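Re: the 221-residue chain
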Amino acid sequence: MVVRKMNPAVIFGEWWTLPMGGQARRTKKVIEIFDKFNPGLIIETGTFIGSTTPVLGILSGVPVVTIELDKRLALRNQKTFTRLYPDLSITQKFGSSEKQIIEVLERISPEVKIFAYLDAHWFDYLPVTDELFALANWGGDFIALIDDFENPYDPNYGFDEYRNGNKIGKHLIPKNLGLRCFVPSMAANLEGVCRRGTAYVFSKSAVNSQTNLLLNDLLEV
C-alpha cells in the first residue's frame, strides 16, 4: 500500500535518499509505535527533500508538521506535497527547528500525543537538545525518534560526528526531565544495507503507559 502511494520524484528527488534512511526494521518499529502509542500529530525536523514526510503521514493517518531550514527546499517540498499527496495533511514550516517546534507546540493541546522524527542535524550546531526541551516543556506525552544516533552497544551502527568533535549521542538528551532513551538491541548487520543508529526518547508519562513498546527489541542508554 505504501509503495503504491509513493512517488519516485519525492523519494529520490535530487539525492538518492530513501524514507527513514531505507531501514526496514526502523520503519517496522515506527509502525509499532503508531499502532500502540496512537499519536494525534507527527512533527518532523529536517525535512530535506521530503522522502520520509509522506510515509509518516500515510503510516500514521494523522497530520504531519515538518520543519526545514533551507528555504529553497521548504518551498519546493510544500509544492510537491500539495501536488502528489493532496489527501495527506502535511504542513511545511521554514526556519530553525528549535524555534519552529516551539511555535508548533504552542498551538497543540497537551492532550494530543505526539511522535517526533528528529533529523535536523547537519551542521555544527545540533538542535536535538533544544527540540527535546521544547517537547518536554510542552507537557504532553511524546515519543521522539533521533536519526544517526550513536549506539553504545553496537559500533556497527553509523552515527553523525562533526568537525568540532560533537556527535549525535546520549549526551544530547536533557537531564532531570524524566526522559528515557533507548536504542535497538538488534545487531546492525540485521538491518540491511543502511545501518544508521536510531534512538527512541520517551517522555516520562509515555514510557510509564507504553512499556509494551519496550519489550524485546530496545535497550536503555
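The CA atoms of residues 7 and 45 lie 21 Å apart.
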